[in-house]
């Protein structure tokens, strides 16, 4: 096993120019695989557009939404610029990005997003749990944009009354999800999958970068979320840095990279109602059609105050996941965490998981274990929709070293299918002060070593 314990240095180099004033930088990131440089925009020399100059007034949702839209449009047409949200609370509707725009929140600024679903219409091309559809717009939405950023020390905050009412899964909601599942499984056109009727109640993401390139999200605090909080989807070249997320609602993952590539997540604080990082790559036939893995992802120097997993992979992983490096992160005691690293899939997913590296993790007490793999996770879908096509998920080459927890049920628990054993798992110096149940329990694993010694199933 190779070791990567030296401090990692990030180098930023001016790379190219998008206009007279908007430049990009290349971020070099060290990893135990061939990690491409990540290109992000540099708005330091671009003009600023203050939303009050476009008619924004605190608490006036119509004027604020119109002012932000007008400022974004002008910055885009000028070839690049910063849209400035000044100190104060600004109630608004959806925000749609255009290329070469930086949404910048000054200290003391809060963008407060309405919880009125009508403010997120018309429907946009988006996703729900790995299936493409047309649904309510994410609160902040970028589609086919390049060179975009959200920066500053201000706050992005969601009003939640309506979304909390939608947390439940009544019969009309489940019927809509079943219909969407069948449409996707039969490769029906995405434009026909419109989910904004009166009963589907599919909550929007907070931030979605959809089919975008060269993205920077830095410095802001994100409070509450209707659904997944930060969702890079079919995007590449993404840096998420010094972001604080506080979202304890249903399905409130911190970051859900999905079919996206060349990603750095660093120096962030996650306080979640679900997973801190949930690595996705689409679901079933939709992902097989799009055929894009999530790969080249580095997460480092992050702190988790609460969350189900430090990092989950799946269960929507049908496009494949490879080249992931999780380093120097801490899970605080009392985080109510199930696993540090958890891989989950089922017979419908296909895809693959390989070349996952985890090192230098410190954790308090964990309710389950350090490393878990389950290959039969279907939740409520097991009996309510059929399996159209069986595709198992190859999982291999997992390297975990220098991990310590105060208390766990187990060090590793792996349950795989006999038809598709999990291969080549190496754990080195992975310890817990107290092990409440067992050290290792494995089913259908080939090539598991612990501290350099092979262990049988």
Detailed description of the structure:
By secondary structure, the protein is mainly beta. The chain has one domain (50-455): Pectate Lyase C-like. Helix content is 11%, strand content 46%. The protein has helices at residues 61-77, 161-165, 171-185, 284-290, 381-384; strands at residues 11-17, 23-28, 38-42, 48-50, 81-85, 88-92, 95-96, 101-105, 109-113, 124-128, 131-135, 140-143, 146-152, 155-158, 207-210, 213-218, 221-223, 230-233, 236-241, 244-247, 261-266, 269-272, 277-279, 294-300, 303-306, 309-313, 321-331, 339-344, 353-365, 369-374, 395-415, 422-443, 445-450, 453-455. The strands form 4 sheets. The protein has a 25-stranded mixed sheet that branches. Residues 1-19 have low confidence and may be disordered.
CATH superfamily: Single-stranded right-handed beta-helix, Pectin lyase-like
Domains, number: 1
User: How many helices in DSSP terms?
Assistant: 5
Poorly predicted segments: 1-19
Record field, number of beta strands: 34
**Major β-sheet annotation:** 25 strands, mixed
Return the CATH topology.
Pectate Lyase C-like
Rounded to the nearest angstrom, the distance between the terminal CA atoms is: 21 Å
Radius of gyration, whole Å? 22 Å
**CATH architecture label:** 3 Solenoid
- Class based on secondary structure composition and strand pairing: mainly beta
Q: What's the SSE blueprint?
A:
Elements: E1 11-17, E2 23-28, E3 38-42, E4 48-50, H1 61-77, E5 81-85, E6 88-92, E7 95-96, E8 101-105, E9 109-113, E10 124-128, E11 131-135, E12 140-143, E13 146-152, E14 155-158, H2 161-165, H3 171-185, E15 207-210, E16 213-218, E17 221-223, E18 230-233, E19 236-241, E20 244-247, E21 261-266, E22 269-272, E23 277-279, H4 284-290, E24 294-300, E25 303-306, E26 309-313, E27 321-331, E28 339-344, E29 353-365, E30 369-374, H5 381-384, E31 395-415, E32 422-443, E33 445-450, E34 453-455
Parallel strand pairs: 4-5, 5-8, 6-9, 7-12, 8-13, 9-14, 12-15, 13-16, 14-17, 15-18, 16-19, 17-20, 19-21, 20-22, 21-24, 22-25, 23-26, 24-27, 25-27, 26-28, 27-29, 28-30, 29-31, 30-31, 31-32, 32-33
Antiparallel strand pairs: 1-2, 2-3, 10-11, 33-34
């Amino acid at each position: 096993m190779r070791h990567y314990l030296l401090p990692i240095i990030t180098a930023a180099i001016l790379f190219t120019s998008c206009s007279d004033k908007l430049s990009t930088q290349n971020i070099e990131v060290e990893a135990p695989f061939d990690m491409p440089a990540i290109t992000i925009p540099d708005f330091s020399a671009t003009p600023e557009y203050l939303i009050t100059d476009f008619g924004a007034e605190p608490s006036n949702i119509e004027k604020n939404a119109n002012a932000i839209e007008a400022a974004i449009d002008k910055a885009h047409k000028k070839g690049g610029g910063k849209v400035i949200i000044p100190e104060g609370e600004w109630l608004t509707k959806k925000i749609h990005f255009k290329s070469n725009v930086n949404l910048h929140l000054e200290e003391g600024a809060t963008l407060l997003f309405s919880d009125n679903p009508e403010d997120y219409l018309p429907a946009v091309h988006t996703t729900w749990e790995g299936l493409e559809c047309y649904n309510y717009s994410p609160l902040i939405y970028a589609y086919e944009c390049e060179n975009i950023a959200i920066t500053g020390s201000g706050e992005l905050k969601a009003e939640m009354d309506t979304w909390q009412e939608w947390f439940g899964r009544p019969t009309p909601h489940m019927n809509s999800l079943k219909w969407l599942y069948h449409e996707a499984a039969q490769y029906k056109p995405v434009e026909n999958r419109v989910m904004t009727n009166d009963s589907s109640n599919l909550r929007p993401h907070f931030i979605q970068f959809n089919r975008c390139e060269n993205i920077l999200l830095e410095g802001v605090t994100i409070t509450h979320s209707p659904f997944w909080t930060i969702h890079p989807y079919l995007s590449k070249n993404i840096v998420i840095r010094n972001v604080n997320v506080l979202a304890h609602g249903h399905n409130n993952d911190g970051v859900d990279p999905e079919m996206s590539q060349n990603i750095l997540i660093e120096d962030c604080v996650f306080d979640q109602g679900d997973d801190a990082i949930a690595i996705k790559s689409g679901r079933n036939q939709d992902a097989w059609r799009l055929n894009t893995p999530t790969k080249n992802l580095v997460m480092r120097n992050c702190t988790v105050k609460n969350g189900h997993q430090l990092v989950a992979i799946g269960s929507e992983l049908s496009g494949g996941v490879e080249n992931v490096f999780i380093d120097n992160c801490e899970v605080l005691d009392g985080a109510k965490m199930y696993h540090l690293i958890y891989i989950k899939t089922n017979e419908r997913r296909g895809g693959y998981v390989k070349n996952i590296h985890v090192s230098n993790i410190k954790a308090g007490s964990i309710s389950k274990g350090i490393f878990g793999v389950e290959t039969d996770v279907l939740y409520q879908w097991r009996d309510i929709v059929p399996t159209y096509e069986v595709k198992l998920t190859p999982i291999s080459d997992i390297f975990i070293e220098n991990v310590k927890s105060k208390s766990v049920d187990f060090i590793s628990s792996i349950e795989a299918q006999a038809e598709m054993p999990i291969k080549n798992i190496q754990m080195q110096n992975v310890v817990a002060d107290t092990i409440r149940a067992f050290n290792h329990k494995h089913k259908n694993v080939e090539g598991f070593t612990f501290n350099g010694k092979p262990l049988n199933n």
